[in-house]
UniProtKB/TrEMBL annotation:
Short name of any one Pfam family annotated for the protein: Pribosyltran
Keyword line: Transferase
Top-level taxonomy: Bacteria, Bacillati, Actinomycetota, Actinomycetes, Streptosporangiales
Domain of life: Bacteria
Protein name in UniProt: Putative phosphoribosyl transferase
UniProt keyword annotation of Transferase present: yes
UniProt key word Nucleotide-binding: no
Domain Phosphoribosyltransferase: 22-173
SUPFAM superfamilies assigned to the protein according to its UniProt record, in alphabetical order: PRTase-like (SSF53271)
CDD domains in alphabetical order: PRTases_typeI (cd06223)
GO molecular function, one term: transferase activity
InterPro entries: PRTase-like (IPR029057), PRTase_dom (IPR000836)
Amino acid sequence: MGHLFADRAEAGALLAERLLFARDPVVLALPRGGVAVAEPIARRLGGVLDVLVTRKIGYPPTPELGVGAIAEGGEPVLDLELLRRLGMTPASVAGVVEQERMELARRVAVYRGERPLPDLTGQEVIVVDDGLATGGTARAALLAVAAAAPGRVTLAVPVGARETVRALRGEADEVVVLATPADFRAVGQWYASFDQLTDADVLRLLGER
């Protein structure tokens, strides 16, 4: 198994070439990793770059297991079937949802301050992440964007799990993905360099636009 991309910047540059149909887009990156992919896309397309902050809602005993997600401007999107299999209800994760709302608000304040999201009404919007595993945060992001009445929405990722990509095709006008490997286990396995970004990294990338 080889790496598909040297790093997120290379992945974003390759992805940008598949997005040349977009005219004056608003490029919304899912922080933190998605920002490093989105910056070269926004630069290549001459679009506005901003973040759309999302947070995974974790299963309380094992927070790494996502049972849903929340995006700024949207309501929690829960995997009800997974919750049922775990013997839980939406009320069971209400405390986690509240914690993630607080962290989401903190990150919005750090990344954007008092500035609101760009007006998406009638706009060409590209939602970008560094990959799709379960797709929970991407789904929450797309629902939040759809509520803002955009003209057209594209989800763009360098790599994703096949089933997840297939499931999300109904959530956007178009899904652009460079690779859907059969042996997908985690997003990071397809990058030679997949360092975790910091808030400072996000601000630096946003400041380059």
